[in-house]
Amino acid sequence: MDVNKVLGIARHAISLVQKVSKVHGVKAKMDSLEINMGMVSARKADINFQLEQEERRPGKKRKKEVDFWMQSVGSLEDQVHELGRNVEEGHFFSLLMLEDQVNGLATQVDKLHDKGRFDSGLTMDVKPARGYELRPGELVGQASQTRRDEIWDCLMNEEVLCLGVWGQTGVGKTFLTKHIHDQIVQDRTRFDGACFVTVSQEGTVGTIQTDIAHHLKLDLTEVSSVYRGARLKEALQGRKLLFILDDVGKYYSLEEVGIVIERNGCKLIVTSRSNDVCEQMNCRELVHVTTLPQEIPQGLDEVSNLRHGH
Fold first, then answer.
1. Cβ neighbours for 227, distance < 8 A, ≥ 6 positions apart
2. For residue 16, is pLDDT > 90?
3. pLDDT tens, 27-85?
4. Which residues of 166-197 are buried (b: 16+ CB within 10 A; e: fewer)?
5. Which of 146, 150, 175, 215 has its Cβ near the most Cβ atoms within 10 Å?
6. Are 235 and 229 in contact (CB under 8 A)?
7. Are residues 80 and 54 in contact, defined by beta-carbon separation less than 8 angstroms?
8. Euclidean distance between CA atoms 79 and 70, whole angstroms
């Protein structure tokens, strides 16, 4: 037999063996890639769970680098899944052509794995909202100033956790407590901020919770009504907010709403036309506001009450 022909056959056989070996190598690399991708995906799931826990607390926001990393992992998961299917279904020569793609994705997955440590934490602190100033108008007259100071002094008493402000429609309860609200928003010594909720006679636990959640920038849309109170209570841990429930016409369970009133924590002001309602809401101190028609902006409480069907 011709020596050159023999050498040609040998070289072809060697080349075929190398290609077969290379095909097996591509499949082995793909298996390794899928395992590494699985590890990164598991890390992504752990980070997502941790973020959900941390972001439950107001004042915590995920870092942009974490968000970008999560999105990058999601994109790579789709690419690896698609490539794995091509390798599984591929034939001899098509597998050889996929080797570069396998190597490229393997490098990207390794880099993402290394960058997914986040030793400095997943979230950053953001300034909690103190609330917007309501600016009800200027206090005029000694009587209204005296009532405002009386409410303020009770509020600053550490023993008073829940304060009731009561009086007939139109005497200025809303006006006075809005002044208290704005001073809390401006003053950073005792409270983190203030949250004013107009309850009205048609109010429900759900509407109160929704207004508080808006103040906290907390999304309750996917939270069952059974758990909304618990979710709010969790979000308020460690916070020192003044809650003002305005125009309360009946008893509401603070436990059900999710408001926790405690020393060195949150406090509550309830305004109502009835002192009985204030007492039912566990207001240990009551301030009676009598008619001050010349000392509040004309129609302020009346307009507010008419809007809520009084």
1. none
2. no
3. 888 899 999 999 999 999 999 999 988 877 766 788 999 999 999 999 999 999 998 88
4. bbeebbbbbbbbbbbbbbbbeeeeebbbbbbb
5. 175
6. no
7. no
8. 15
Specify the pLDDT at position 28: 86
CA 123 to chain centre: 12
Q: How many CA atoms lie within 13 A of 300 on its CB side?
A: 21
Rounded to the nearest 5 degrees, what angle is found at the Cα of 216, between the Cα atoms of 215 and 218? Answer: 115
* Pair 289, 240: CB distance under 8 Å: no
Contact 212, 219 (CB under 8 A): no
Per-residue pLDDT reduced to its tens digit, 178-217:
999 999 998 867 898 999 999 987 899 999 999 999 888 8
Q: Three-state DSSP class for 244?
A: strand
